[in-house]
Amino acid sequence: MAGTAAVAVTSLTMISQAQPNANPAPAAALMKIAFTVNGTPRALEIDPRTTLLDALREELHLTGTKKGCDHGQCGACTVLVGGRRINSCLTLAVMQQGAEITTIEGLGTPEQLHPLQAAFVRCDGYQCGYCTPGQICSAVAMLSEVQAGIPSHVTADLNAPAAWSEAEVRERMSGNLCRCGAYSNIFEAIQTFAGKRP
Amino acid sequence: MRPFTYERARTPAEAAAAAKRHAGAKFVAGGTNLLDLMKLEIETPTHLIDVNGLGLDTLETTPEGGLRIGALVRNTDLAADARVRRDYGVLARALLAGASGQLRNMATTAGNLLQRTRCPYFYDTNMPCNKRVPGDGCAAIGGFTRQHAVIGASDACIATHPSDMAVALRVLDATVETIGPDGATRRIPLADFHRLPGDQPQVETALAAGELITAVTLPRPVGGAHFYRKVRDRASFAFALVSVAAIVQRDGSGRVALGGVAHKPWRVEAAESEMTKGARAVVARLLAGAKPTTENAFKLKLVERVLAAVLAEAKGARG
């Protein structure tokens, strides 16, 4: 333990000494960007390094979209851009000039839940809830992909529409991790919602 | 993430010229790999050229009856195209076997080809890596090598190429179209596009500085039964341990390429003369000279078994 502490102290010293030179380049100039979020036009002046995720959370204070891994591996940051689901952590805000973005706040409100949100509540499709906004945004777009006839890895016949199955839903939702392991109830919620569709 | 300047290019020629002007520039399209690596400061471009506005996002039939895929066609849209599903099933299957729905919606055809390796030692900036810092050494050699290359590696690098799509494009004899900073265009067969590591593992493709991919073209369809069989540690959303892309004709002849075994999609055309003799005969020539480690030697047997399963399924389908 003593050895570990000594190493830790040394590392900290090194970091504090190194810091003045850690980022030798000057801070990037701010850039102007405009897009629509949940139907409302938004204009920002931001560092080009800002991801769409950080712009939504830190600049627009739409904190429903969650930062999980920040590397496209967990899906907690899933939002819709032009109706398509993407990982908002892996795109820069400046790359979304003119885009129409929908976050969980644009799908439903506490007073008026989106039917899929209501299904998550009814089916207990979560435990801690951190992945839930991403799961719901992802599932809404996933069902549009099924309707558009887009095949998946488990679709048996590439030239026929995919049949509805648990395997299809699980495969198509594999980009959204739930560390509480609420997958069976997430599937129930999605199926409940999809079954209600005309 | 290191600071950078940013611009949106309006034409392919303008994008290529901008890359020539800025020594530390990178093109960004989907961003799914580049931004991941920029956050880790493995990629440190000083200038980003956003090519999303170039319009290279259409699929068109070529005069020869093939398919020209714009560089910016997203993986989802390519896999969903009716012509790809009907005539190039191996490509649709490979695309759908990769990444997640969200990532496929962002990732582009050109960007998929330019993916960097997922070698964990490349990703860990505390470890030496000749790809990140040429001459730095390779921590993977002598390290944990279950995922690494079994053939075509070097003393400098044993990383694999992570793309599924590229393996299918290799078996389909695809060609990469580019434009250079001087406006000149050229066509690079996919066979020559990715490089083996040699003593310069940081040089991964045949692209010159500032050269921009504009399209990938496929020859006219060759028929046959199409397969993309991927073996991985999870059933979904994981990179391949090995993958087999194959097209098998009614007489049992065909083509095969492998993913997960080398620094590039692995295909040896001469091995395909053995297709009618079975998987063992094909793999004996396809992976001749393989130098696996004790941790990844299983890949040789796995490739043979996966190909055997593919050939059995093709035979069963023929009746």
Describe the structure.
The complex is a heterodimer of chains A (198) and B (319). A five-stranded mixed beta sheet of chain A has the order 2-1-5-3-4, sandwiched between helices. Chain A is globular and about 50 Å long. In chain A, strand 1 and strand 2 form a beta hairpin. Chain A is 39% helix and 13% strand. Chain A has 198 residues and is an alpha+beta fold. Chain B is an alpha+beta fold. Chain B contains twelve helices and eleven strands. A five-stranded antiparallel beta sheet of chain B has the order 4-5-8-6-7. Chain B has a three-stranded parallel beta sheet with strand order 1-3-2, with helices on one face. In chain B, helix 5 runs antiparallel to helix 9 and helix 11 crosses helix 12. At the A-B interface, strand 4, helix 5 and helix 6 of A face strand 1, helix 2, helix 3, helix 5 and helix 6 of B.
